[in-house]
Write a structure and sequence with these properties.
Number of strands of chain A: 17
Distance between the termini of chain A: 33 Å
Order of helices and strands of chain A: EEEHEEEHHHEHEHEEHHEEEEEEE
Radius of gyration of chain A: 23 Å
Shape of chain B: globular
Low-confidence stretches of chain B: none
Number of helices of chain B: 14
Order of helices and strands of chain B: HHEEHHHHHHHHHHHH
Helix content of chain B: over 70%
CATH topology of the largest domain in chain A: Rossmann fold
Largest sheet of chain B: 2 strands, antiparallel
Strand content of chain A: 25-35%
Shape of chain A: globular
Oligomer: heterodimer
Structural class of chain A: alpha+beta
Low-confidence stretches of chain A: none
CATH superfamily of the largest domain in chain A: P-loop containing nucleotide triphosphate hydrolases
Strand order of the largest sheet of chain B: 1-2
Largest interface: A-B, 24 and 21 residues
Radius of gyration of chain B: 26 Å
Number of domains of chain A: 2
CATH architecture of the largest domain in chain A: 3-Layer(aba) Sandwich
Chain lengths: ~325, ~325
Amino acid sequence: MTDAVTFRGVSRHFGIVKAVDEVDLSIRDGEFFAMLGPSGSGKTTCLRLIAGFEQPTAGHIEIFGERAEGVPPYLRNVNTVFQNYALFPHMNVRDNVAFGLRVKGVGRAERHRAAEEALELVELGGYGNRRAGELSGGQRQRVALARALVNKPRVVLLDEPLGALDLKLREQMQEELRKLQRALGLTFVFVTHDQDEALSMADRVAVFAEGKIQQVGTSEDIYRRPNTRFVADFVGSSNVLPADLVGAGASGQWASLRPEDVVLDASGREATVTGRYFHGRVTKLSLDLAGQSLTALIPAREDAPEIGETTKISWDPARVHVMGQGA
Amino acid sequence: MSDLSSNAAIFAPRSGPLARTVDWIIRHPRMFTFLMVLPITLWLGIVYIGALIALLIQSFFSIDEFSGIIVHEVTLKTYGELLRPYNLDIILRTVGMAAAVTVAAAIVAFPIAYFAARYAKGKWKALFYIGVMLPLWSSYLVKVYAWKLVLAKEGILNWVFAKLHLTWLLDGVLSIPVIGGNSLSVSYIGTFLVFLYIWLPYMIIPVQASLERVSKDLTEAAADLGATPKQSFRMVLFPLALPGVVAGSIFTFSLTLGDYIVPQIVGNSRLFIGQAVYTQQGTAGNIPLAAAFTVVPIVIMGIYLWGARKMGAFDAL
C-alpha cells in the first residue's frame, strides 16, 4: 500500500536556521500521526511542507506516491485545520465551510447541502447562518474542521488545533477527533507540543527536536523505550540516569526510568527527599540518589515522606530502559 | 505627609492641587471621559459643522441677477442654476476626474500596500513609510509646479520620449480627443497624473493598514482550500481590504472633488468644481452659487458611502 506522505531527506532552511534538517518520514494511509516536539523543533514546518506553504530546500516529498515539491497548496488534495482556525471573518459559517467547493466551481445548492452535511458531522448542524465571530472557541474549531473535511481531502493536517481550548473542551475534542478520523478512515497528521495529547490520540508519534526526528513509533514505544535522552525527558519527563547506577547496562550508557515506576520500598536503596509536591492523584517527590537527582510519583493513597527525610526506594529492573551509547 | 517607606496598608492622600485633581479623576472615570470629549465636541459642533451649515444655508438664497445683491429668501433657484449645461459640465468633469483618479490610485496603491504589509519588516517598513510620506512633507504648490515642468512641451518627459524615439507614441496619446491636448501639461491626462501623484499616499496608507490586519493564515487557508491566487485575491484578500480601499477612496475622491489649484496649473482652462466655487465666491460675488457647488461633493460622498455600505464594504470591520 502506498504511504500517504513520504519525506526523503527533506530539509527546509531559513538562512542559517535549519528548521527542518534531513528528515525521512513515512505516514501510512489512514493513520492518525502525531508530530510532537517543543516550539521551534520543526514539526510545524513539516506540516507546512506537506500543505505546500513551504517548499523544501532539499529532499523529496511524496503525497500518495506523487511528487509534491513545487506543487502549490491549491493543487494538493490536502486540507489544513489552522491553529487559530483562520476562518474568513467576512463570511458566515456556511460560506466558510463551502469555500473549498465554491472555488472548485460546485453549484450553490450542491455546496450548501455538502456544507450542511459537514457541519452536522461536527455537530454544528443549523449553524450555517452564524458569523464566525459569534461562535465560541470550540465551535470555531469544529467549523475549521468541517471546512477541511467537506473537500474530502486525502490527508487532513491539524496544526495544534486544540491549543486554544480549555482543558475540558480539549479532552472532549480529542475524543471526537479520534472518532471522526476512524469513522472517515482519513489520514490525520496532527502537530502538538502536548505529549499527553500525542500519546493518547495517535497511532504513531514522531518526536521532533532541533529540526530532526528523534524517534518514530507507537505511543507505547515512545514512552517505554525512548531512543534518546531528549525523548525520555520530553515525553513523560523520565529520569535519565547513568545506566550502571540503576543496575542496568554498561558504564557510559544512559537509562530511562519513569517516575511512576519508582516505588517506596523499605528494603530498597536510600534516597533523600529534596522536594515534595502534592498533585492530588499523585505526590511528586524530588529525590537525591547517590548524588543523582531523581523524580518519583507516589500514589496519593500512600504516605509520602517529608522534605529532608531519608526514604528507601526501589524499582522493577524490567522497567529500566537502556538507551544507545552516547544517546 | 505620607511616608512611602512606612508600613501602612493604605497611604495617606497625596497633597498638592495637581495630585489631588489626578486622584479625583481616577475616582471619576466617566467625568474624565466627558472632560476629554468636551473640547473636541465643541470644536466639531460649533466651528466645523456650524460653519458648514452656515454655508449650506447660503445655498438656499439666491442672487439678484440685475443688482448682484443676495436675496435672503429660501429658494431652490440656485440649485436650478447648477443644472445649466455649463455648470453641469463642470460637475460631470470633476466627478469623472475624481472617479478616474480614485480607481487609478486604488490600482497603483494596492500592490505597494500589499508588499509593505506582507513583506516589509523592520527598517524596510520604516523606509516604506518615509517613502510614502516624504512627498507630503514638501509644499503642495512646489510639487504641482514641478509636475508642470515635467509635463511641459519642453519638459523632461517629452525629452525622454524623444531620446527613446517614442515621440510618436506621446503624440498619439495626446491626439486622443477630449483627454489629449497640445502637451501633457495642458491636457486632462496631465491633470489626472498630477492628481494621482498628489493623492496617492492617502490611498496607500489606509489600504496598507487594512491589509496589515488580514493575517497571512487567511490567504494560506484560501490556497489550502483550493483557491488559485486570483480566486484568493477576489474572494478573501480584496473583500477584507475593502474598508481600507473605501477609506482611501474617500480621501482621493473628495480631495479631487474639492481641489482648485491642480486644474488651474496643469490642464486645459476648463473649470472644476473647486475653481467654480473660487470664482463664484470671489470675483463673481455669487456666494449662493458657490455654496450650492460646495453641496455637490458632500451629496456625492454621502451617496458613495451609502452605496459602499449597502454593498458590504464595511462588513469586515
